[in-house]
Amino acid sequence: MNRVAQSQQLSREAFERLKSEYDDLTTRGRIEIAHKIEAARELGDLSENGDYHAAKEEQGKMEGRIAHLAKLIENAEIVELSVSGDDLAVQPGCVVSIRYEGDDEVEKYLLGSIEERREGLTVMSPGSPLGQVLVGAAKGDTVTFEAPGGDLHVTVVDIEV
Predict the structure, then answer these.
(1) Do residues 114 and 108 touch, judged by C-beta distance below 8 A?
(2) What is the reported pLDDT for 5?
(3) From the DSSP assignment, how many helices (H) and strands (E) are in the chain?
(4) What sign has the CA pseudo-torsion 107, 108, 111, 112?
(5) Which residue among 33, 36, 132, 148 is least crowded, i.e. fewest CB within 10 A of its CB?
(6) Residue ranges per domain, the chain?
(7) What is the pLDDT at residue 92?
(8) C-beta of residue 99 within 8 angstroms of C-beta of residue 107
(9) What's the rounded Cα separation, in Å, for the pair 129 and 52?
(10) Fold of 85-160
(11) How far apart are CA 124 and CA 92, in angstroms?
């Protein structure tokens, strides 16, 4: 079965951070885990060797992360935020502040991949129902999306790049 790889939109900053993590794990990380496994093997019987099993489990998790990063990097589409004064629109990589109709609270989200995450911000996927209708909206626009409980109306309060 042929699968077409889905491109992953990433900011230049996130791409560089992921590439750096990948490079570190495929060099220093692999060497470090190999040393841990070798040291644990020297302790004797592998069937009852907790250090060995822990190191092999750590190796498996690390290799899973390496594979995930490799796929992200390979399929990355670097997006540059277009900043043009008053014409600024919601786009992947920006921070959008929204208010649900009938609510006074303003919620702030980073619109993008979970790999774009930043301290103190919840990530919203551009492919989510709300994310889809927010892309292209401008400050002050009200958008509507379908939720399990019915249609919800959201106003874009602010957009930051």
Answers:
(1) no
(2) 59
(3) 4, 7
(4) negative
(5) 148
(6) 8-78, 85-160
(7) 83
(8) yes
(9) 45
(10) Chitinase A; domain 3 (3.10.50)
(11) 9
Half-sphere exposure of 147 (CA within 13 A, CB side): 11
Cβ 102 vs Cβ 154: under 8 Å: no
Q: Which fold has domain 8-78?
A: Helix Hairpins (1.10.287)
Residue 4, pLDDT score: 52
- If you average pLDDT over every residue of the chain, what do you get? 87
Please work out, in degrees rounded to the nearest 5, the angle formed at the alpha carbon of residue 72 by the alpha carbons of 66 and 74: 100
Q: Do 82 and 20 touch, CB atoms closer than 8 A?
A: no
Task: Specify the residue for token string 């060995």.
Answer: 52
Low-confidence ranges of the chain (pLDDT < 70): 1-5, 81-87
Q: What are phi and psi of 99, to 5 degrees?
A: -135, 125
DSSP helix/strand/coil, 3: coil
- In sign, the C-alpha dihedral spanning 59, 64, 68, 73 is positive
pLDDT tens for 70-86 read 999 999 888 776 665 56
Of the candidates 79, 140, 143, the residue with the CA atom closest to the CA atom of residue 112: 79
Give the model's pLDDT for residue 152. Answer: 93
Q: Return phi, psi of residue 160, to 5°.
A: -125, 145
Residue 17 tokens read as: 């951070």
